[in-house]
């Protein structure tokens, strides 16, 4: 089992991204979808909607009466990072951090810089202040090596960035390292699935991909999409499928397969849909999937659940979650200091297998417990003589 469209995976991982600064990832994805003639559009929030070419087609798909649920695969295009605030000299600027982060060995760490139209030269995080809880960076100062940057970008707000290592992406054996795998791997998986679905003759599928913005600061893109009210017009079942690159945990280990995510730190997911999904995973990846509540963080299935959408989730176990050196490895600056995120190619391939499996037609979404109910009735019948023998 190997990763499909590997060149696309590397291309997306090479793109810089931060909350509210997803332009480079969005361009890479939309250019690919355009090249392969996959229908897509941007919703009013700036999320990429894949599988339909307009709001009209979206409403038609969810508004077509059917017992077959539309699967909405959700991933996000941002990763924790910083925005420039203001210059404080010709080669230093203040920044504001957005999302989770390392908490130690920050001073002197290398960072990458980007603008909406270019990837810029590397710089150094001169100093950083943590938020009150100490769990992430609040703000700090970046020092650039080239004073001309201030002349080119007079407003420091045009610049954003994140932690940088030897490269934006590289491989060692079956591990792929990156400045940001969360959740560019999930975004890649949705695009890869769409390329397979819409290859050749155009046909409709019970599929929508939703690639959201600013998840790292509280599911902002997903909330914005759900607030549009488009799904309230659905005349058929809707199933949310969260694709995440989630912190590795006991029982959700790197290289042992994708995780059937039973819930996150905030909530458990839909029990009936999870029953169907678990059976699918057992059938398609009998010895290469894991199952647990991934409570190392939250995901967009939480947002969908709040809006009344039943959900399941798939996680790719992630090393050095949010660039925090939990697992260490190459380019780590020390425990809980900056380190590249990494994932296993086998886990990504398994994720793709499960995504395809979830689109199998005529699954028992409406009767997930029918087989177990039959077993219960058989058990009850078998014990009737003892029941009648008296208490």
What does this structure look like?
The chain has 391 residues and is an alpha+beta fold. It is 28% helix and 26% strand. It is built from eleven helices and 17 strands. The protein has helices spanning 6-13, 23-35, 55-63, 148-152, 184-197, 220-227, 271-284, 300-306, 345-357, 370-382, 384-388; strands at residues 40-42, 48-50, 70-76, 81-87, 92-98, 109-114, 123-130, 137-144, 160-163, 169-172, 175-178, 207-212, 238-247, 259-264, 290-294, 311-318, 341-344. The strands form three sheets. Strands 1-2-12-3-13-16-14-15 form an eight-stranded mixed beta sheet, with helices on both faces. A six-stranded antiparallel β-barrel has the order 4-5-8-7-6-9. A hairpin with a 6-residue loop joins strand 7 (123-130) and strand 8. Helix 1 packs antiparallel against helix 2 (23-35). The mean pLDDT is 97.
pLDDT averaged residue by residue? 97
Q: Radius of gyration from the CA trace?
A: 23 Å
The largest sheet is: 8 strands, mixed
Weakly predicted, low-confidence segments: none
**What's the end-to-end separation, in Å?**
56 Å
Output the structural class: alpha+beta
- Overall spatial form: globular
Amount of beta strand: 25-35%
User: What's the number of helices?
Assistant: 11
Helix percent band: 25-40%
Please count the beta strands (DSSP E, at least 2 residues each): 17
N-to-C series of helices and strands: HHEEHEEEEEEHEEEHEHEEHEHEEHHH
Major beta sheet, strand line-up? 1-2-12-3-13-16-14-15
